[in-house]
């Protein structure tokens, strides 16, 4: 067993374990943190496959940006964990059964019989000066230009959809909104601070 | 030219659509204007086409306008075949239709009186009537212009449909509903044969295009097929007989003639248009069009001949004892249709078509004249209540006289030429059954004269109406009614004289109607006849003319001079009178055998099959099964996302297990 | 790769629609609430101009561009034009409906145009990646459209379900594509097809991937058992959106199947034929049977869609040119039928009232004989009653199935379509033989009335003259 193999199995084990934890933890913050771990181990495996750029991007984008945002949202929301997990035990047997059947079928196909090294010999290692990022960039802006543009359009649509579905102009006194033009007009004195007397709450 | 042909067909359709769908909006005047002008345009264009053929300026047109679909190599197309035969039919159809349109303006003017006040169908009935007759014209034109069997069948059924609609036009009358049901059912029998015939053509010829079928006909002439068991049949005979069964239904030949007299329940204009001049002659037209097929089967020709001769003689006899003015004309129509079929049976197709044309004019005239009388008599149709109408309705009287003379074959009138040609053609024929047919058509001449003039004398001569009230209101019909009478009277008298030579013996139909040399009876007749005058002279040498004269005289003597003779004959030959009065008990027979029998079978099937098997097991059973499945599937559709997801995963598992493992 | 401007010409329709969507998006920002109709007009004009652009850039030859990412052929042109026209109809019907409900916003048309773009990409795709991106573009636009009425709880719920299930289906599709890539080493249809033709490719992995690909496609079609989202989404979405989802995406789904299964994995025909048989039979069965039990017309039409999908699949699974032609004919005709059917639903709806219950159709003939007639034509067409075009659509498909000796399948199809006729004819019965429950006169703009009439009459006209569209489809399939 080579060193590479050991590293691979190690990270794979961590990946599977943390992924399982993501869906079984009661606390959503824990789940999110386990997801971060899963991403990390995944990045490590990609590194093994000499996909350095993708590995770094995974860490930078998913761990650095997406997951942080995600955690932020999870912490701000008051999620009722109990109801979310209500059916968990009840459906567990069915779920396990289906999972098992699925696993068996996948293993039957995606096993060493079909994807072994004899079928898919490992590619020759790239030269030391091989630049992963550059070659990706080369195809991305030439051969895959059309798809690249499409991906951009999809992002645009996502932005439109997100804004369209969340931006609302509500009128009425109970809705508090910021009005920048009024904010900058604030003067010193009573405009800035107002003392309000309130009764103590329990 | 294609545009003109399309216009001929579509102008009436457009009128029908406008009057039918928007009749209520645009009102009566606009409705009859739009339909009449549509048909008028067709009539003008048809005349143009006819003159094109007469002067030789037009070529025969045979082409597809539109391919509807191609199924297993069978092309189904809308196409036109316009040749001399079609041109004649076009003019006959559109001209009579145009006259009828104008006539209808007067006849239906007070149609609202025929409907009970609250009847919903009574509103806009006037516009609907015009829409129907225009639609009929369209369908009839599609039929005669067709160049393939499918379109022929379409036109065939479409004219039938309009005919049923119009027979039952006054849908609040029980008799009208009965009559239209009867027409419908009897025609089903004929159409069943017809569609089988077309099916046989499609099956053995692999095409439903006239030209292709006719071209292949000679090579299939001696084909024998097994229809039932080991019996081998001549293919051509089978096809021809099946097609002719369709013609028997549509053209009311014995024994499928029973619907035509009852169809007189419809308004008179359509009796003239549909049940005298055009639709009922579709069978004659069809057989003439199929002459390349019929010529190849003498058996089929004999079949046509015998059926035609029987119809010609025996339905004429019934006409003598009828008292309803329209029914007399209806039986006369039956009899004349028999004559046309006889002509076809002896391969004198040209004579058949010629008689079709002359008959269309004078019979439409007689019907419209009868309608005019009916208007005058305030919808009393019993000729025993009439008499002496001559002085009140002079135009109707004179046109009726001309029509009747044409019908009985007065020398020089159009009916004379066509009928004499048929009789002589039968005389020359050697085909099996021609002896019987010759007897039948000769006797028919006497009978035709007898019933025509019986009616004529009873209606127009003698003492006036018995009812004083009716007498007081008796006056000539308005212009819209009498003008079409005059318009139709002209060709009734003259057309035979001018066209007989060309149509019967000349070049006109030579390339259109196919006649084997050994069957060509008209050619043999043509050897002795040179022009209309010689034909009249030839007529004086034959029997037919004297039979007709005897018939007129007998009518005058029995019904005018000595009315008591009629009574005496009636009591002396009670049985005969009763048989004729009951129309040989055809109706009773059918009623008992088919209506009663089928009702009995129906009841049996209903209780056994319907209630127990279908209702109980299939309908309720399947409804229950559907309910169970639907309820079950609704339960699956819980609205829960994870249920949906698991369903997808299970589907995935199912497919994986099925196809991969 | 050397970049050439000439390769932009064939994708001009896509570029045009993309630009149009962006222009509408920006212009809409500066429009006052009451001038919103300008965005609508611009969207409509762009769709109609797109027809011209497509026609003018059509060469009739099969062109493959962008390193095998895109294909432009006769089929793509025909399908695209059908998509433009039917989408334009959907936009038009939607206008009054949205305005009545105070959700007449430019975003509807922007998202609609993006969805059209997504469909165009799918129709012209020549690689798995392109088709996947087109699919996602379409799906994302549709998710947003379903939730368009933010105040509707039902709408949000439907959008959520659609989104989650859609993501699941996308995941499966991607997994399947990765398997195909693994086995053939390419994601471009031509190369995949070539690799498959060479023996030595591992069949088992391929079929394994194929199952996932077929499922991704079946989800898009809404074929049983991947149909669960259909009734809920059709029901929950605003009718204007349901109309859009129910019509054109079926054409895109047909293209999806044609491109992936025929262009790409055509060699595996024997394998996917079996899968489609199962999907088709289940879809026709479940769709028709469950539709009977529905009291809500939107749900009923949803199940009817499922059953029609079964018929489209029948044509595809025949695997012959005749079958593809029939399926293409069917999907275009179905999109037009669905457009008309939902159009009538919207015609009867008004401010504060959704004509969703079957009872709302009672006595329609007394309220508006003309539109009752149109609905009659549409229902007849869906049921497959001659001489409407629906009859021919079914007949061509069945003919294709019979011609590959699968007569039993045709019989199953006939059997279920007879059952299906029941619930279409029930609507006809309600319209003509029952007394109206609701007597409010119909209020619709002249444009809606005219287009709806054209839509309804088209069912009859196409039925009388089916050869034209059929020959176009036959030529497109080649």
Sum up the structure in keywords.
heterotrimer, A: 202 residues, mainly alpha, Four Helix Bundle (Hemerythrin (Met), subunit A), 3 domains, 9 helices, extended, B: 661 residues, 2 domains, two-stranded antiparallel ribbon, two-stranded antiparallel sheet, 26 helices, 4 strands, 74% helix, globular, cell membrane (chain A), NADH dehydrogenase (ubiquinone) activity (chain A), quinone (chain A), NADH-quinone oxidoreductase subunit J (chain A), NAD (chain A)
Q: How many helices of chain A in DSSP terms?
A: 9
The total beta strand count of chain A reads 0
String of helices and strands of chain A = HHHHHHHHH
Our count of domains of chain A comes out at 3
Give the CATH H-level superfamily of the largest domain in chain A: NADH-ubiquinone/plastoquinone oxidoreductase chain 6, subunit NuoJ
Query: Could you name the ranges of chain A where pLDDT drops below 50 across 5 or more consecutive residues?
Result: none
Mean pLDDT across all amino acids of chain B: 84
CATH class of the largest domain in chain A: Mainly Alpha
Largest sheet of chain A: none
End-to-end distance of chain B:
68 Å
Please identify the structural class of chain B as seen in this structure.
mainly alpha
Shape of chain B: globular
| Portion of residues within helices of chain A | 55-70%
In DSSP terms, counting alpha (H) and pi (I) runs of 4 or more, how many helices of chain B? 26
Question: What would you call the shape of chain A?
Answer: extended
Q: Largest chain interface and its two residue counts?
A: B-C, 32 and 39 residues
Subcellular location (chain A): Cell membrane
Subunit structure (chain A): Composed of 13 different subunits. Subunits NuoA, H, J, K, L, M, N constitute the membrane sector of the complex.
Family (chain A): Belongs to the complex I subunit 6 family.
Protein name (chain A): NADH-quinone oxidoreductase subunit J
